[in-house]
Amino acid sequence: MSKRTTVQVFSKIEQSSLFKLKAEDIDILDELQKLCDCIKADEEETDWAIGENGEFALDDLIVGAYWALTMCHAGQDSQSYSVMCSLGSIYKPGYENLPEKDTSGRYVCDTICDHLCPKRRVPLEKKKRKKR
User: Fold this and answer.
1) pTM of the predicted model, to two decimals?
2) Which domain holds residue 59?
3) What total of structural domains would you count in the chain?
4) What are the percentages of helix, strand and coil residues in the chain, rounded to 5?
5) pLDDT tens track for 67-99
6) Angle at 38 between CA 33 and CA 40, to 5 degrees
7) Rounded to whole angstroms, how far apart are CA atoms 118 and 52?
8) Closest to 71 in 3D by CA, of 28, 37, 114, 107
9) 39 torsion bin: left (phi>0), alpha (psi -120 to 50), beta (else)
10) What was the pLDDT predicted at 120?
11) How many CB atoms lie within 10 A of CB 80?
């Protein structure tokens, strides 16, 4: 089997049952790792606008997946942590926080979190403390 391109891996994720009804189930962690590998192999040629006319673009996927895995990885020895580190080698958040509500990046983040941690109890928004 020939090596897949960034566009092919992105399309497989975008068209999966995570984001579409009646679509193919995928192992999101495997596909995200393949996506990172494709980008790292040919980073100079990566078209960051892939998917911009859809629900989310490549950059939204990278940012949203990174933040989802920061909250939902299964520990340092897990595949999810390894994928988070691979995403972190592409996306460096610095002092940024989660993507804003009602953005494509947040949609991706919430979708992947809901898939990996369906019973998560921690809201993505920090609760404001009441002043005494």
Assistant:
1) 0.84
2) 6-116
3) 1
4) 50, 0, 50
5) 999 998 888 999 999 999 999 999 998 888 889
6) 95
7) 28
8) 114
9) alpha
10) 62
11) 20
